[in-house]
Amino acid sequence: MPFFKKKLVQKIIKENPNIDRYKLEKEAGQSKKGKRIIYGHRKMYFCIHSSLKEIDRDFGHNLIKEINLLKKTNRNKKIRILDWGCGTGRAIRELALQNKRMEFIGFSKDSYIEWKNYSRKNLKFAHTTFPILERYLKKNPVHLMYSRLGITHLAEESTKFESIKLINHLMKLREGLIIGGKILIAGEIGDIAKETLEKSGFAVEFRDRPKYEEKISVLTRIK
User: Which residues, including other chains, have CB under 8 Å from residue 100's CB and lie 6 or more apart?
Assistant: First the structure.
């Protein structure tokens, strides 16, 4: 699937007159550097090559806060963190560079050429299926998972994240967390999902994020 740089946004609009122009230009980040669009398969969707600062902002500045908390409470332990839907891996690479004693995993259903240069001793990328990832995490549980866009692929047509597919995946991911481990989701899960996940061994809370109407969801494994 070909990559298109920002300067081709207008060409895409011309070829697709019915597209939401405002949303396209906003998501493509025409006034910002470091963002790209992928266009193909008769539809448009966005792959944002975002910085850690942008990712943390979308989590209401809770991502870096949670990582700093992990450093304080696990001083002599190996901390493992997973980015579910890492894209090109720009943000998780920044985290790996800043936290060399931690281990980071970037997971995506697609692979990116940037991974070859971004990989480090404490950063690995996984281009695999969810069942394989699930089995790996059961043997190698993580302290923190976060998902900005990857999880939206499981939400199907729900306005809030409460599809059966999403709930089942999150329930399976519970065993891939240590006790007390957390999953951060850049969006609100629905009431049905919240109730089901709380019965399965999660504590669920919602946190505000500046400039967003929707809160983030924080799932903590309690058993």
Answer: 122
The tokens of 181 are what? 């481990």
Q: What is the CATH number of the domain that holds 59?
A: 3.40.50.150
Q: Residue 184 belongs to what domain range?
A: 52-221
Q: 123-175: per-residue pLDDT in tens?
A: 999 998 888 999 999 999 999 999 987 776 665 544 455 577 788 889 999 99
65 is written with which tokens? 């806060």
Statement to judge: residues 111 and 28 lie in one domain: no
For residues 90 and 35, membership in a common domain is answered with no
Domain count, the chain: 2
pLDDT in tens, 4-21: 344 455 555 566 555 555
Spatial contact of 142 and 82, defined as CB atoms under 8 Å apart: yes
pLDDT of residue 51: 86
**CA 168 from chain center: how many Å?**
17
20 and 59 both lie in a single domain: no
Q: Are residues 18 and 125 in the same domain?
A: no
Q: What angle do CA 59, 60, 63 make, to 5 degrees?
A: 50
The predicted model scores a pTM of 0.77
Sheet of 43-47: strands edge to edge? 3-4, 36-40, 43-47
